[in-house]
Amino acid sequence: MRTGIFLGSFNPPGLHHLSIVDAVSSHFTKIIIAPAVFGQNRRHDATQITRSIIPIHRAALLDLAFKHMQKNHIQVEIELVDLERNLGREPLDLIEHYATPDDRPWLIVGTDVFGVDSEGTREFAEWPSRDKLWAHESWAIVPFDGYPYEQADLPPNHTFFDTPIRGNTAHIRECIYRRRDYRSLVLPEVADYIQRYHLYEGVVPPTTTQLPVTEARLRIVPDTNNPKALEIAERLKAFESANPNLIVSVGGDGHMLRTIREFWRERIPFLGINAGHLGFLLNHEQSITPPHSNTTTTNTHTHTQPTFLSEFTCHQLPFLYVETCDTLGKWSECIAVNDAWVERETGQTAWLRVKINGEVQLDCLQADGILISTAAGSTAYANAMGASPLPVSAPILAVVGSNVIRPRQWRPVYLSLHSSVEFEALDVHKRPIRAFIDGRAQGTCHAMRIRVSRVAGAQLCFAPGSDLSMKLAQLQFPKC
User: Fold this and answer.
1) Which among 11, 65, 63, 17 has a CA at the least distance from the CA of 35?
2) What gap in Å lies between CA 326 and CA 342, rounded to an integer?
3) What is the rounded (10 degree) CA torsion for 15, 17, 23, 25?
4) Which of 230, 301, 398, 454 could form a disulfide with 387 if both were Cys (CB 3.0 to 4.6 A apart)?
C-alpha cells in the first residue's frame, strides 16, 4: 500500500486539482485530500475573499469535486478534521498522523510550490519544517504551467509526473470576483454550489437561497414501511436519475432525518415529501408536482409526462459536532443531525454541571437529563421536553431539561449558533448518565461537549406552497 497526501487550500477545488489526482493515481493505492488550515495561510491564498468562505462551504465543495473520483474506483479520502477542529497541522504532522510501520505517506504537490512566482519568491521557502521535508520525505511532483523551475529546485526524493497542469485557484477566484466565466475551470456541481451561495463574490454567503431546477434528476428514497410513501415514489419514477441533483425523501420527518444522515456527504439538496403526519421538514406532494402535465402524442399512443416544480427555497441546516467522554476519560466524536442529550442511567436523578462557552452557568442541574437541538430538531424530542418549536432557518440552538427539579422552574434556553455547551456528571458512580446522539445510545459517559459543526450540514428545500409558519402554529396550538 502506498499513500499520498495532496496538500492545498482547494479554495475552490478546480479541474486542475482533479487532473493532478488523475496524473498520480497509478502510483498510489490511496490519496488523501488535505485542505489543512495551513494551506489558507500560504502566500497566494491569504486574501480577504478566501477568509470569508466558512469551512462548511469549503468542505461541501471538496465533497462535490472529489466524489466522482470515488465512483471511478480511485480510493480518495477527504480529510476534514483540520477544518472541523480549526487545526493548523503542518505537512510533517500530517505525514506522522497517517504513517504506519509499512507505509510512510508521500506529499503530492505541483511545481508551483518549488518554482519562482511573479514576485520572484518560492512558496516552499515559507513552509514550516522545510529542511526535514526536503531531505527525508518522498514527493510526487506534477508540473504547473507558468511556474518555471530547475531540477535543482526539486527535493532529492521525488518522482516527477510529466503531465503539465494548467489552472490555479487564484485564477478561478479572480474570474468569479470579476464576474467572468469560470464554469470551464470547475465541475458543474461545484459551479452550481458557488453560484447558489455567491461564494468568492466579495459578499457574505447567505444561509437561505433560491434553487432553480431546470431539469429534475432525483434520487428517490421512500420509507419502505409506508405504503403511501411507496405510492408517491412510484409516481416520481419518471424523474429518477443515476446522476441526481436532488435527493427526495418520501415519508415522515423521522425518515427524512435518516435520509439526511445517510446521504449528507453527497452535498446534494434534500427535498422531503410528506407521507406521514405533520411533516415539519417536508412538502406536500401537490406542491412539488403540480396537477397539470406535459402530453405528447405519437402515431398510436398519447404519453402523459408529470411536471416538476422548477424553483425551491433552499435552507442551509447546521449539524452538531458532539464529543462524549467515557468514564475512563476517553473522548470520542460524532455528528448529530437533530439533537444530542444525556440522561440518568439509573433510578437516581442526574446531577449535572452545565457550561456555556466555557463558563459555568449551572453548578448543579438536578434533572432526568438535558438536551441540545438545532432549529430543525426543535420539533422532535426537544419539543416533547418543553422547548418551543423554531423556524427551520433560525440561527438558534435550544437547550432544554427533562423533569428538572433544581433550579426550580428552570425553562428552556436559546443560544446563538456560535455557542459551545458542555454537560458534566457531578457523580458518575452514584448518579451515572448515558449519552444519546440523534436517538442512538452511546453508552455511559462522564461528559458531553456540543457545538455547531464547521464542516457538516445539509441543504433542505421547500416549495413556495409549503407554509412553515402554519406548521409551527399547528405544533404550538394543536387541535383537540
Assistant:
1) 11
2) 12
3) -120
4) 398
Q: Which residue type occupies 161?
A: F
Degrees, nearest 5: CA angle 418-206-67: 90
Q: Report the pLDDT value the prediction gives residue 43, as an integer from 0 to 100.
A: 44
Per residue in 427-448, pLDDT (tens digit) is 999 999 999 999 999 999 999 9
pLDDT tens digits, 23-75: 999 899 999 999 966 444 444 454 555 667 889 999 999 999 998 776 556 78
The yes-or-no verdict on residue 374 having pLDDT over 60 is yes
Q: Record the pTM.
A: 0.89
- C-alpha span between 379 and 262 (Å, rounded): 21
Spatial neighbors of 311 by CB under 8 A, at least 6 apart, are 210, 211, 212, 213, 464
Q: Which has the closest alpha carbon to 106: 32, 206, 209?
A: 32
Owner of C-alpha cell 409506508:
226
Contacting residues for 91 by C-beta, under 8 A, at least 6 apart: 5, 7, 36, 38, 107, 127, 128, 129, 133
The C-alpha cell at 200 is 468568492
Cα–Cα distance measured from residue 247 to residue 31, given in angstroms and rounded to the nearest whole number: 28
**Rounded to whole angstroms, how far apart are CA atoms 211 and 16?**
27
What is the model's pLDDT at position 291? 60
Over 80: is that where the pLDDT of 15 sits?
yes
φ, ψ dihedrals at 265, nearest 5°:
-70, -10
Average pLDDT over residues 169-181: 93
